From TrEMBL:
Keywords carried by this UniProt record: Chloroplast, Plastid, Ribonucleoprotein, Ribosomal protein
Coiled coil: none
Major place of residence: plastid
Gene Ontology MF terms: structural constituent of ribosome
Gene: rpl32
Name assigned to this protein: Large ribosomal subunit protein bL32c
Localization: Plastid, Chloroplast
Biological processes annotated in GO: translation
Organism, as annotated: Characiochloris acuminata
InterPro entries reported for this sequence: Ribosomal_bL32 (IPR002677), Ribosomal_bL32_plant/cyanobact (IPR044958), Ribosomal_zn-bd (IPR011332)
Family indicated by similarity: Belongs to the bacterial ribosomal protein bL32 family.
Entry keyword Ligase: no
GO cellular component, one term: chloroplast
Positions of region (Disordered): 1-21, 52-71
PANTHER family with a match to the protein in the record: 50S RIBOSOMAL PROTEIN L32, CHLOROPLASTIC, LARGE RIBOSOMAL SUBUNIT PROTEIN BL32C
Amino acid sequence: MAVPKKRTSKSKKNIRKSAWKKKVEKQAIRSLFLAKYLLKTKPEDPAVEKLITRLNDTTPSENNQEEKGRM
């Protein structure tokens, strides 16, 4: 197993962390935009429509009960 020779500096660690956060933020914005778009417009794909109706029909408590039943 690979082991680092020396400790990574704080600045290098922070640079890597900020780069990761920028990627995550960009993806979160894309996901939010897509979700808003799908909720506002009528999707043509039946699979997407089925997913949206399933998400709208269930409440958070129902989702938790379904997950517990699977385990």
